[in-house]
Amino acid sequence: MHRSIGKPGLLKEINSNRVFNLLVHERTISRIQLAKSTGLSRATISLLIDELLEIGLVTEVGRGSSSGGRPPILLEFNPNTAYALGAHMHDYDWTIVLTNLDGKIIHSLEVHIPENSPEAAVQSLSEHARELITKVPEGSILPAIGIGSPGLVNISTGTIQSAVDIGWFNVPLGEMISRELGLNAFVVNRSKGGALAELWHGGDMNIHDLIYISIGTGVAAGIIHQRSLYHGANSSAGELGHMTIIPNGPACPCGNRGCLQQLISEQAIAGRARSLLKDGEPSSLRAIAGHHPERLTAYDVLEAAEDGDNLATQALDTTAEYLGIAVGNLINLFNPQLIVLGGPVGNSSPLLARLLRDKVRRRAMAYPLSAASITTSTLGASAGAIGAAVLVLQKAHQLLFRMREVDTNSPLSRSSC
């Protein structure tokens, strides 16, 4: 049934959301403080808190100090009332996490996808998600799962429009996962998930605008504006890898030439080092490559650069030069407070962030640059999966009250695990 503003059910949902968010932020608070901070009546607060006490979301933890009269009873937020599922797909592997309401990982799994098909990926995810679910009390899973996937994703339908790296097109991933697990499935590009994870775990509530850049086999960005994920008109915002850096540069699978992805991805970094080796540059990488430079990987180059190898550092410096052009444009365009380098390459190279800072100083305008910091992700390979779980946690206040409505005969029930 359609509900409009003013209907009791919707008003209760809005009020419970306000109370929930305040509890998450304050951690310990009294009913009186909740009423003052939200503007709700004490009677309304009492009714909402009674429900939260019943489901265990808050507990009474003694009395606070009194400003006159009886000391108020303090309420403490319990982040282990319920748990959220999140999964991140990279190449042919899943990282699956189970987090508490704070987004802290409680359990995690790394799972290989046995073959390159959407069906195999969904089957593998579902099987191991059920395995994780058995590790927490029955009935404590929020009835949804967040997914960070490769490619262009229509967030409203959960469909992968195109993931060129793995050859998937028009895959209704959200629908497939929901049907298999009996859960709502929220799907975003994995770089957007990384951005959410950095926002959630950053710890600085003054950060409102950040950009997370994932560098691996591809390149993409997740953009946070005013603490909300920016999707764009059709969910395709953040395709940084297809920003043109060199007109008439290397051909890209997207049909363009000179895309950033062709200049700073894993393949580009390894290829740059191989070319330098062929030119006769001395390097410790020769011991790895021998007479077969094709053996050299981007991660060999990154490790050698961190150890001070001149050839590897030269290859990484060129990578930072191209990335600096893109990041300078992002800073001028979006005026972010924070740029976070992540993905397999970003996570593996603190040196890349240091080189990038120098390059960006020559590319970005001084005033927007003065507000921006550039750093490496502290969440590592788990960022995408944590961010996927955050998709669920953002709706936790709604899902908590629906948990009892989950059908015990669904594919998620323990009898089917």
Walkthrough of the structure:
The chain is an alpha/beta fold and 417 residues long. It has three domains: 8-77, Orthogonal Bundle (Arc Repressor Mutant, subunit A), CATH 1.10.10.10; 83-196 and 383-416, Nucleotidyltransferase, domain 5 (2-Layer Sandwich), CATH 3.30.420; 210-334 and 338-371, Nucleotidyltransferase, domain 5 (2-Layer Sandwich), CATH 3.30.420.40. The protein is built from 16 helices and 16 strands. The strands form four sheets. Strands 6-5-4-7-11 form a five-stranded mixed β-sheet. Strands 14-13-12-15-16 form a five-stranded mixed β-sheet. Strand 13 (219-225) and strand 14 form a beta hairpin. Helix 4 packs across helix 5, helix 8 packs across helix 10 and helix 11 (310-334) packs across helix 13 (350-361). The longest helix has 25 residues, at 310-334. The model is unreliable at 1-8 and 404-417 (pLDDT under 50).
Strand order of the largest sheet: 6-5-4-7-11
Helix content: 40-55%
Largest sheet: 5 strands, mixed
Structural class: alpha/beta
List segments where confidence is low: pLDDT < 50 over at least 5 consecutive residues. Answer: 1-8, 404-417
Q: Can you tell me the CATH architecture of the largest domain?
A: 2-Layer Sandwich
Q: Give the N-to-C terminal Cα separation.
A: 34 Å
How many domain regions?
3
- Broad shape: globular
Radius of gyration: 24 Å
* CATH superfamily (homologous) name of the largest domain: ATPase, nucleotide binding domain
CATH topology of the largest domain: Nucleotidyltransferase, domain 5
Helix segment tally: 16
Q: What is the level 1 CATH name of the largest domain?
A: Alpha Beta
> Roughly what is the average pLDDT, rounded to an integer?
88
Number of strands: 16
Strand content: 15-25%
